[in-house]
Amino acid sequence: MGLFFHDCFVNGCDASVLLDDTPNFTGEKTAGPNLNSLRGFEVIDEIKEAVNSACCGNVVSCADILAVAARDSVAILGGPSYQVLLGRRDARTASLNDANSDIPRPIFDFPALLSNFQNHGLDLNDLVLLSGGHTIGLARCTNFRDRIYNETNIKPKFAASLRGICPKEGGDDNTATLDATTANFDTEYFKDLLKLKGLLHSDQELFKGVGSASDGLVQYYNNNPGAFFADFGVSMIKMGNMKPLTGSDGEIRMNCRKIN
Ligand code: HEM
């Protein structure tokens, strides 16, 4: 799911994020938000090989594989399923600069998060719903250190326990879970935000307890798991429809790591 998000937010869902750097080609993998953060490239390679062999050839794009894999990982972890539209083609280009500028950062405050999403044609609901993707997965110490040592809108006991994992200096790559039930797709992420137990600064920005619109949405989805499941699928479809390459644009890559 993280791969799909970092693909779609950089010039659309075109599998540009999967391209490896070579001596004559610079991809997106070394961009700040991607380096040491994105995992699962080998899984995509395996799926691509299996799909090519099942289809007796190269018919399913890497961009579509990312979309379907994101959906299936959500469903396998107990989340909703939804109907992914297919037919995306793969980019023959990538942009390191755009990857650095277009993917939201965990240090962003609420206005920056919202305007980043709006620049991608997404709205406040999508921001809260898709951030709910943090109901699974991990983050590295370097991405939450400042929050656990310097912020005040964090539950003190929670901050103290994280300090054990994430020292003031060193341990940059030590990980903590983004919510308390990391292997389950559920509404725990929202519950944690209500308890001031958001791991990233950007997570807790969605709930500050001041009665803002995003506060209300966090409360609503915490109280209505069914609505979260249904609406999450709608937002994922919306994200997955951002600027796809279609027709004769792009190509269907043989190997997701390199252009044909
Ligand atoms: C709202 C803005 C967002 C910010 C600032 C943000 C930031 C982050 C950060 C910093 C990490 C940890 C990376 C690391 O430490 O290596 C992370 C992990 C993750 N994010 Fe986000 N994210 C955002 C939205 C999303 C969205 C929209 C999705 C998908 C729908 C998503 C899915 C994930 C997943 C699944 C992980 C865990 C990855 C893993 O464990 O391998 N995030 N995010």
Q: How is this structure best described in words?
A:
Helix content is 44%, strand content 2%. With 260 residues, the chain is mostly helical. Strands 1-2 form a two-stranded antiparallel sheet. It is globular. Protoporphyrin IX containing FE binds at residues 1-2, 5, 37, 39, 104-106, 108, 113, 130-131, 133-134, 136-140, 143, 200, 202.
Order of helices and strands: HHHHHHEHHEHHHH
CATH top level label of the domain at 128-234: Mainly Alpha
Number of strands: 2
Provide the CATH topology of the domain at 128-234: Peroxidase, domain 2
Strand percentage lies at under 5%
The ligands bound in this entry are: protoporphyrin IX containing FE
Gross morphology? globular
- End-to-end distance, in Å? 25 Å
Name of the CATH homologous superfamily of the domain at 128-234: Peroxidase, domain 2
Strand order of the largest sheet: 1-2
The residue-averaged pLDDT reads 97
Any idea what the CATH architecture of the domain at 128-234 is?
A: Orthogonal Bundle
**DSSP helix count?**
12
Largest sheet composition = 2 strands, antiparallel
Question: What's the Cα radius of gyration?
Answer: 18 Å
The class by helix and strand makeup works out as: mainly alpha
Low-confidence runs of at least 5 consecutive residues: none
Summarize the amount of helix as a percent range.
40-55%
